[in-house]
Amino acid sequence: HLSKRLQAVAALVPSVPKLADIGSDHAYLPAYLLQRQVIETAIAGEVRPGPLANAQREITKLGLEEVMQARLGNGLAVLDPDEHVDVIVIAGMGGELITEILTRGQAQLRQHPVLVLQPNVDENVLRRWLQANHYQITAEQLVEDAGHFYEMLRAEFVPNPPALTKTELDFGPYLVRERSAIFRHKWQERLHKSELILRQLQASKKQPATKIAAMQARITAIQEVLNDKG
Ligand code: SAM
Question: Which residue among 17, 53, 126, 209 is the one 20 to 30 A from 166 at the CA level?
């Protein structure tokens, strides 16, 4: 009973011994991956007791006590820096928060686990963090689920990842190349919203010119990506 969004996240997880799902809530994702034997063991991390209890209930319900542990703590602090984890999943939060969790968890990233990330917003912020921290995006997906667009990606540590262009950082290197129907739908919608905001900015006497120029630049960038027939 995984949502379309979480199924798309699951599809990006490589087959490995050990996974940590940070901000796991019901632990649906690691439970699904354990049951399908994509992974052998899992840690479900949660910062709030309520969601942690959800995870614990799910573990008990499915009889996964031997292979999944629910741990209370902030971000990657639930992992011992010396504990080897193959994949870290962080899904269903904003890109800013995911970036903060990764930054505060540098000690836990020393062994360079594969990252599977699903930011709800601010995907560009996350891509810039990955680029600055030697993580190369190796897969991306975009799905529409219950009227929302969701982006998910897999990133792997490499000493010298190829530098992404501004367009690739803003729109996603694989997504912009593929330009799927969903991708065009998402950015058509963003374009309409941005045009509306621009008109409001222009109508207001109090808005600084820099803010208007930034919105105009954003609109141009979206138009270029939508018009480029590749
Ligand atoms: N990952 C699941 C998913 O994608 O369906 C649950 C997403 S839920 C919207 C976000 C969860 O992240 C909440 O349960 C929240 O308690 C947890 N969370 C937020 N900040 C966190 C942090 N710094 N460390 C661990 N968990 C966090």
Answer: 209
Sheet holding 68-72, edge to edge: 68-72, 39-46, 16-22, 87-93, 114-119, 148-157, 135-145
Same domain, 154 and 186: no
Distant-in-sequence, close-in-space partners of 67: CB < 8 Å, separation ≥ 6? 34, 40, 41, 42
Residue 54 lies in a domain: yes
Q: Does any ligand 1 atom lie closer than 6 A to the CB of residue 222?
A: no
Same domain, 110 and 199: no
**How does pLDDT run across 50-68, given as a tens digit for each residue?**
999 999 999 999 999 999 9
Among 48, 57, 120, 121, which residue has the most ligand 1 atoms within 8 Å of its CB, making it the best to mutate? 48
Domain extent for 98: 4-161
**Number of domains the chain contains:** 2
What's the rounded Cα separation, in Å, for the pair 149 and 27? 22
